[in-house]
């Protein structure tokens, strides 16, 4: 997207106030309060999701499913999420962030109840599809954060948000295993209860920031053409050089490469280090813990020092080095060092890219573009595990990490001159 007022996308220039259609930015205290509420909501949401996910293969196996069907069950969530994300984004742009979040959490609660009582494979598929559709609200939460925070604070705020989700990722599987002692239905019902608690919590403490009835044109006098979700999704590939398109593609390719290698990481570690089902959890706990620490304690200070554009490039380099390092590791020390680069790379890359995306599009379309970002991220999260799994079997156990590293390094070419169209906001 070009940054000229005459661009049909209606995107503002970097110097324009992109908070069009919102209440004036609040002071730091009120913004922090809203961020805290969003972090709690994201944590509870991810806690419930990860209580269920590790149990899914076992539930499916008990119903007669093999590996292929289990893979389809896992992918069905991502497919539903990527299809629903732009819709949720546009819905939130039109009707507000909070209504979209309420509906999405309600859909997730319904999905967990279906999961709890699923006595057939088609009910398991139904639960995953409904859950994935509700999971499209991740983009809504990110748009909410963008609305509630000053431009110069967005990347670090998104880092805090992702730290909260990673905490849920670390704790969810453990809790899901524990509550199974009370019966097979318990994890699903508890996850549904968490969703309802989350809805009540968000309804009470989360206020609407933007005014959906005030348009960009009314605020700025600049004619804006509102695009449908389908048009916006297509525009990313039709005009890849535009600022928003470049940022979305960087995000999608990098997160696909990371998620794809994560899918085969257990197989690689079992082959080279003899890691088993009882010990692989420690590896992911290590990654999750580092991610929480970096995003919660270090990210804000580093962004202030280096800026979002430069830090995103550093993150891509660290992610690529970590992937190569894992493939070359021969002992636990080098493995720990290499694996430790992965959460550093993702922590530096994804919040910064998302924050820059929030500034190169108008606030009226922010939810939509956040949704489109997750659509493309969902596509790569579905495609990369399949492609890298084939590579693992066909070309060697280490090949997925090299392939992903080259993909990540390729995004560096797309990240050149980010400062020219997504300059760091002047701190006030």
Tell me what you see in this structure.
This protein has 428 residues and is an all-alpha fold. It has two domains: 18-211, Growth Hormone, Chain: A (Up-down Bundle), CATH 1.20.1250; 232-423, Growth Hormone, Chain: A (Up-down Bundle), CATH 1.20.1250.20. The chain is built from 17 helices and no strands. The radius of gyration is 21 Å and the shape is globular.
Q: How many helix segments?
A: 17
So what's the overall shape?
A: globular
Distance between the amino and carboxyl termini: 28 Å
State the domain count: 2
What is the chain-wise order of helices and strands?
Answer: HHHHHHHHHHHHHHHHH
- Mean pLDDT equals 78
The share of residues in extended strands comes to under 5%
Number of strands: 0
Measured on Cα atoms, how large is the radius of gyration? Answer: 21 Å
CATH architect. name of the largest domain: Up-down Bundle
CATH topology of the largest domain: Growth Hormone, Chain: A
Question: Considering the protein shown, what is the CATH homologous superfamily of the largest domain?
Answer: MFS general substrate transporter like domains
Highest-level CATH class of the largest domain: Mainly Alpha
| Biggest β-sheet strands, sense, barrel | none
Task: List the uncertain runs.
Answer: 1-28, 212-225
